[in-house]
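Final report, Chapter 2: Outcomes

The project's central promise was a pipeline that accepts a single protein chain and returns its three-dimensional structure in a standardized token representation, suitable for archiving and comparison. That pipeline is now operational. To close this chapter, we reproduce one record exactly as it appears in the project archive, with the input sequence first and the structure output second.
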Amino acid sequence: MTTIPHIPRRRALIISGVLLAVLIALLVLPIRIPYSVTVYGRLLPEREWVLVRTDNGQLTSLVRSNGSGVVEQYSVTEPVRGDAMQFVLAPGLMSAVSVQKGDTVGWLTSPELAQQLTALEGALDVAHAMVASARSGDKPAVVQQARDAVTQARAAFDEQQHWHARQTELHAKNILSDEEFELSRDRLEVLRAGVAVAQSQLDAVTSGLKAEDVRQSEVRAAALESEIAAVRARMNRFTHIAPLSGELRHPHAADTLLAVQDRSALVLLLPVNVCDCARLREGDRIEFDVPLTALTGTAVIRRIDKRVEYVQGNPVSIVSAEAAGDTEALQPGLIARCRVQAPPIGIPAYLQHLWSSITM
């Protein structure tokens, strides 16, 4: 049978007092305990562009800055209703490992838009021909025929004019009768009218259509040009251009067609407890390693997001840090174990943190 040794009451009081004094001293004295935060984060490229296909056939183009969490560019390509559209990857990218900004990475083909463009271009050619015909007048053969008629009418008029002048002299000398003189004069007037008619016909065939008809043809041609420009602009939106330079990725996800990652910098995204975030500062150093590998590195905190999210029921804020040094061996997507050396804390705060970590 085990017996508990008897401790004199006085000694027990002394021991209790000493312990209490030590505890009070620890709580009162400005003793600081080193404090670090250990959390798991994911390595991501500083910037990336992804092309995603949605369930309804839309193509979403997204440029995202992982360091700041900002979506820099966003666009949606809507398929033509009922059209059999198809995405085609640029042949040069089948085996490429990187792309440059401005490279064509792929495009959507639309048979309906291609057919519509062909029909509009054909109608525009017809409209241009109508405008040219309206501006230049009738056919050359008809114009030449009208000019010949004017020439013949003027020749007949000139001949009769000379004859009538001779007839006028004879009539003045009373050699020609009044009836013959009037007949000659009437014939001259008839030929004069014939010249005017022939000239009017020539003017009609050389002046083309009426001004309002020419204007209508021009407006029709301009409207077709605007429609063609709109169709081409829509087809150009189906061509996807890389908005940044980087490594080309072909994710295994069925909805992601491709991704371009800017590897000029890598960032760590860390879900840190909101209480620990209050102790972190921009510029703090982070040491990390990748479990089950020999990969290690350091990073510097660049941004502490004030928004609160819940991860496995715990309130956290996202801390982004930029990887420092040589990051060639590191790959986006790796999960790293990160240790953030926060400023030392006092004993009360440390005890509170210790209690929270035990009871949570």
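Archive annotation: The longest strand covers residues 32-53.
This record, like all others produced under the grant, will remain available to the consortium after the project formally closes.
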